Amino acid sequence: MSNNPYRVLGVSPTDDDETIKKAYRDLARKYHPDRYRDSDLADLAGEKMSEINAAYEEIMRQRGDAGAWQGEENAREPRREERPRDDAWRDRRQPREERQSRRHNGARREFDDTTASYNAQNYSPEARSKFTLIRNCINSGNISEAERLLDEVDTADRGAEWVFLTGCVQLRKGFYVDAEHSFEEAYRMEPTNNEYWTFKERMHDKAKGFGGGYETRESGCSACDVCSSLICADCCCECMGGDLIPCC
Amino acid sequence: MFGYIKVRKSELRVREYEYYRACYCGLCRSMGKCTGQCSRAALSYDFVFLCHVRLLLTGENPAFKHRRCPAHPIHRRAMMERCDTLDYAARAAAVLNYEKCRDDVADKRGFARLRARLRTWFFAPAYRRARRALPDLAAAVRQKLSALSAYENAKGNGVDEPAALFGAVLADIFGYGLPEEKARVARDIGQKTGRFIYIADALDDLKDDQKSGDFNPVLGLFGGPLDEEQKKGMEDALLLILSDLETAFDLLGEGADPATAAVLKNILYLGMPATVRRVLYGEGCRKEEHREQ
């Protein structure tokens, strides 16, 4: 861990607890394992995460002592439940992030149940058992095995379910164009299946979520804007015979 | 295949823009010094991006100096002084550019092929100098690009697979010579950037390739020009690549100058999405960009 815990969190020792907590929460969100689920860099993010946790704990420990001395009440106890490891911390997020995080959590197991919703009559029994196997593989993150099994499926059985599972494998590999195309194709082949459509929608949701990371410094209104707008509105009202601000 | 990774100038702070431009000019100068004056014609924004990523990883902080240059003989411009990062990027640019020209000679027909051949002659000395300095990189790039052209010649039916092959080329270029962990981050960024560039390039060339009958992976997958729904799908796919790129960016560290990270953020969150809109919907020529703001 690098020397100064305050530097790790990007805060200054004079900041209050609220600021530090916020900085910690932002960083923990940034390096959360869910975000790096399919990344090769997951271990590096994990290191970073433990560094941040250690720094926060260190600061809270220091402040805990100082807090006792200053008579602050929030010194020692809240430390544990402050840590955004459990689901509780997610509830405080913005709706969009919430949706994403739920998606992430769900996506750790790609499918909720492995015997799926497809129209079973279309496939031979071997194919059906294979599809279940493939779903298990994808759920457990064993993508190369899933790929091998998909190749083994008989050409006659390569229906909507096969296309869909191929799409799931492509999605996990980061092959988004092909994945999108596969989901679309699967949906076209079996439009009654909700699962196929949901996956496409999920991709769309996640893509929509990108791009919030840059402040373009263009929105917002200053105190000056508020005053001048009020004065303007008052003038207009007075023109019309009414009054918005009676004192002027 | 170049010019898809740009900043949005209007959203940069003045000092960030100056940093970006100094890097651009410094790279140009390095190209002149390392690989010969001719190679300066191959300068592109993509390699300025490479410089920024590597500057952040190596923590180098080159000084600026005001200089004149052949393109701007009257006013002096701030330029980054030569450093390992800039010199490396200059050589990598010479390698990739030459390989691209060779590729064009093999793929194109008629007048375009002649033009590509002239370009290879023009850039060959630069390539030789770069190869002398980085023989293993030159070999790796050639080998990976030949895997890509083998795929293209076989007219494979996928977009992401060739994109990943091109990503592997950029992964080598981004990660070359860095220490273990940093190399992994850089390779990841290279991989994703390569995919992005490849797909954006395929979308950009869609109309031309359809007319000329050249291989285009997007055309192979969809069989014709994209309708609105398909365009939305492609937009999602590209944005998802960017959100993968974002996770790798978060591991880059701080670098010596805060402007480096700020420029990269601008590229990721504004420049690259603008490229997506441009190649898909033809939006975002300069005027429109300003109107939008």
General shape of chain B: globular
**Helical/strand content category of chain B:** mainly alpha
Over all CA atoms, what is the radius of gyration of chain B?
Answer: 19 Å
CATH topology name of the largest domain in chain A: Serine Threonine Protein Phosphatase 5, Tetratricopeptide repeat
CATH class of the largest domain in chain A: Mainly Alpha
| Major β-sheet profile of chain B | 2 strands, antiparallel
Structure, explained:
Chain A folds into three domains: 5-94, Helix Hairpins (Orthogonal Bundle), CATH 1.10.287; 109-208, Serine Threonine Protein Phosphatase 5, Tetratricopeptide repeat, CATH 1.25.40; 218-248. Chain A has helices at residues 5-9, 17-30, 42-70, 79-82, 95-108, 125-139, 143-152, 160-172, 176-189, 194-208, 223-239. Helix content of chain A is 60%, strand content 0%. Chain A is flat and about 85 Å long. With 248 residues, chain A is mainly α. Chain B has 293 residues and is mainly alpha-helical. Chain B has a single domain (9-292), classed as Farnesyl Diphosphate Synthase, CATH 1.10.600.10. Helices cover 72% and strands 5% of the residues of chain B. Chain B has a two-stranded antiparallel ribbon with strand order 1-2. In chain B, helix 2 packs antiparallel against helix 11, helix 3 (84-107) runs parallel beside helix 5 and helix 7 (180-204) packs antiparallel against helix 10 (228-249). The longest helix of chain B is centred in the middle third of the chain and has 25 residues, at 180-204. In chain B, 47% of the residues are buried. Classes of the chains: A mainly alpha (248), B mainly alpha (293). The A-B interface holds A 30-31, 35-36, 38-41, 44-45, 48, 170, 173-181, 184, 203-204, 206-211, 213-214, 216-218 and B 11, 158-161, 163-164, 181, 184-185, 188, 192, 195, 199, 218, 221-222, 232-244, 246-248, 250-251, 265-266, 268-270, 273, 293.
